[in-house]
Amino acid sequence: MSAVDQAAGLRQWAGTQCTPEAPRAHAAPSRGTPAGAPPRTLVVVGLPGASPDQARRVVTLLEHWAARGQRWVSDPARWRVVPLAVTSPHLPALLDQQSRWALWVGSDPDAFRRAFAVLRRLHERQGPRRLLAVHAPELPRQGLLNNLRQAAWGCLGIDLLVMAA
């Protein structure tokens, strides 16, 4: 199966998973934190576990982005990564308290379906409408990430920000 056929198949599958209600507006982007400010919190859904090792994967990615010149990251050590299960009873409270949210996207063959399922659950639970896609640096923007971004917006009204080169 060619990459074009696979991408079309993924988009078609995502289209069957769309909810009938119209997309909701998303929150405005957050602003950078000045030097000396408290740590920035990034709530991450979709991690394959809530261990400190999983949160470290996200910090490593922030370090990678900072080294590649992404100024919004600033000092990666100032980020506090909070893994959160999409089923957590704390989701509504955290929505009111936290403005920075991310979705972990794996690089395995089932990553699209798993990430889209997390986004769909967030949508059902009135979750955040803007998330940063956090993923392995070698995952290219072409293919999985673009398809996921398009399906998130087209089906759920969720703005998935992709930083891949």
Could you explain the architecture of this structure?
- The protein is of the alpha/beta class.
- It has one domain (39-161): Rossmann fold.
- Helix content is 41%, strand content 16%.
- The protein is built from five helices and five strands, in the order αβαβαβαβαβ.
- It has helices at residues 3-16, 52-67, 91-97, 111-124, 141-156; strands at residues 40-45, 79-84, 101-105, 130-135, 159-161.
- Strands 2-1-3-4-5 form a five-stranded parallel sheet, sandwiched between helices.
- The radius of gyration is 16 Å and the shape is globular.
- The relative contact order is 0.21.
- Residues 19-33 have low confidence and may be disordered.
Key descriptive features of the protein:
alpha/beta, five-stranded parallel beta sheet, globular
Task: Provide a short characterization of the protein structure.
With 165 residues, the chain is α/β, with parallel strands linked by helices. Helix content is 41%, strand content 16%. α5 links the parallel β4 and β5.
Low-confidence stretches: 19-33
Could you state the order of secondary-structure elements as H and E? HEHEHEHEHE
* β-strand number: 5
The radius of gyration is: 16 Å
Work out the count of structural domains. 1
CATH class: Alpha Beta
Q: First CA to last CA: what distance?
A: 25 Å
User: Helices and strands: which structural class?
Assistant: alpha/beta
Spatial strand order of the main sheet:
2-1-3-4-5
Largest sheet: 5 strands, parallel
- Average per-residue pLDDT, rounded, comes to 80
| Silhouette | globular
Strand content: 15-25%
Q: What is the number of helices?
A: 5
CATH architecture: 3-Layer(aba) Sandwich
Q: Helix content range of the residues, please?
A: 40-55%
CATH-assigned fold name: Rossmann fold
